[in-house]
Design goal:
Chains A, B: Its EC number is 1.3.1.48, 1.3.1.74. 2 copies of one chain form a homodimer. Chain A is of the alpha/beta class. Chain A is built from 10 helices and 17 strands. The first copy, chain A, folds into 2 domains: 172 residues, Quinone Oxidoreductase, Chain A, domain 1 (Alpha-Beta Complex), CATH 3.90.180; 150 residues, Rossmann fold (3-Layer(aba) Sandwich), CATH 3.40.50.720. In chain A, β10, α5 and β11 form a beta-alpha-beta unit. Chain A is globular and about 65 Å long.
Amino acid sequence: MTFTPNLVLRRLYSDVSKKVRAQKYVLTKYFQGEPKKSDFKIVEEDLPELKDGEILAQAEYLSVDPYMRAYMIGYKLPTDMIGGQVAKVIDSRNKNIPVGAYITGPFGWRTHTVTSGDKIFSSSIDLPITVLPDLRPYPVSLALGILGMPGNTAYFGLKEICQPKEGETIVITGAAGAVGSHVGQIGKILGCRVIGFAGTDEKCNYLEKELGFDRAFNYKTCNVRAALKDGAPNRVDCYFDNVGGEISSTIMSHMNKYGRIAVCGSISSYNDTAPPKVTIVQPALVFKELKMEGFLVNRWNDRWQEGIDMNLKWLKEGKIKYQEKVYHGFENMVDALLGILRGENTGKAVVKV
Amino acid sequence: MTFTPNLVLRRLYSDVSKKVRAQKYVLTKYFQGEPKKSDFKIVEEDLPELKDGEILAQAEYLSVDPYMRAYMIGYKLPTDMIGGQVAKVIDSRNKNIPVGAYITGPFGWRTHTVTSGDKIFSSSIDLPITVLPDLRPYPVSLALGILGMPGNTAYFGLKEICQPKEGETIVITGAAGAVGSHVGQIGKILGCRVIGFAGTDEKCNYLEKELGFDRAFNYKTCNVRAALKDGAPNRVDCYFDNVGGEISSTIMSHMNKYGRIAVCGSISSYNDTAPPKVTIVQPALVFKELKMEGFLVNRWNDRWQEGIDMNLKWLKEGKIKYQEKVYHGFENMVDALLGILRGENTGKAVVKV
């Protein structure tokens, strides 16, 4: 007889599953300016018993990402808050996902989730549910960072949209964030000159000294035009835009013919009630024949594992470093989100539940 | 013995060529706001005798195009004014270009030109020198319009950058201009829904009634958002942007996922001393994953004849109509340029020398 630990454990947990109450964040008011705790309600709900093929997952790490601020405008309220998480499977009626496994999934801001393992993509944010391999000695939280959505955003966004060639110059805004800091390191791996803009001298120092950026500038204190002349003497071939805003218009005016711009986000405007006005980009686009393309990482869902594998390989080879800011407690989700929107962190921010 | 009319005619003209004085516009001041006559000097110069391979061309029609306002900022002054022209070959020591032939070339604002027929591309604006076929019954001036640079701008810009598919919706700004009016008609040939924005009711009427646009709106009097809802109920797949400015940001916010934007010009800002500020485009680019690409038509110099041939075919089949505004007199170049920058014309503006 085959030993089926999954079945055994499921029996052990079967009483638990019936009683599990999940906590979740429900957004009840559209954000006005910065997100506020009073925009949310924490709601408890009883989860249903598992059906065949389903699993019960308990959140270990919740992700906070800039897109969360921007996306919610598209939902009818009240609605469950969206987001990715790393969760531990604590009950399973799915033969492919054993109890004890760690998974990532777009389950939102909630403590427990019942989900079908067969349903690979979720509807709210269209990202894969993945069973994690053994990541030790790395923390499982990396599956929300360089081995997850931000890592794949950096990998595919740079490679597929910017298409940098060896020797070209890449500029990155939001360069100390989870995506930006990763983009710059991939740029160095590909043999490019890498220039970052970030919001504190400390971050800039980290980018230059720890991550190998050729130059990093504090956009709050530098003259961006002068910084570009100084840092990108051959002008800019690829621009990885995380922030939008005036700095992006300035960078585009410093690009080379046929330059490529990957528009990953526009965090500089997310908290604005009305979208801001900046210098038009069209003249630079025409006369330098630039290509500017916005993207969402789920465009590459069918190549998801390629990105994860490559980033894990580079991580193991010591070519990619990461920094993580871990907030503690489910009740601190809003503070963590505020932190990234205010630029308080370097690298990836997660919340340990 | 073969009859060689070229050689015979060259002898007839050989005395003329030695004495020809050309008139040309020299830009002496950078434009501030609208171009002014006092920004230019009309200068006379003696042309050199023809060397082997060269021709002497006498301008018949000079082109005025919006790009002229924008380009000159890149030149060191004083400099000869750039531009395309249709010229008649009045002397030739090039066996491929007979006397009496009509040619187009980027010779600038000047009455006579000595040029090498072997030099296919000019350095100042990189457009082909072409010997025109017999265009009768059409005027040779079309070689500056639908059978020339604007026609190829419409043809390649729409096909290669916007890549419209049958049934998609195309929006065009500057829709009554030389390029815009042509883009819309190609859009209809390709089976698309075509919406234009132009600056007078008369132009809009012309676009709808004469050129077959599905809808045309006067951007000066309409609410652009409401016009888009009304005219593009399935939202916008392709945007051919001739104007830049706030209207472009509004149109981009009304596009479908994976929409394509061909940025051909930004005439709305050409007369501004400082580039204007408009609502940022990055959020629309990210969340709809739009691709926005600026282009100059000389990118397709190696396919130049393809565009001309296709536009001539459509013209002969009655599928493409054109309108021409002919100014008279070399001394009226600046007025003609002002006219197009002010949106005074429908279709293409040329100056008969």
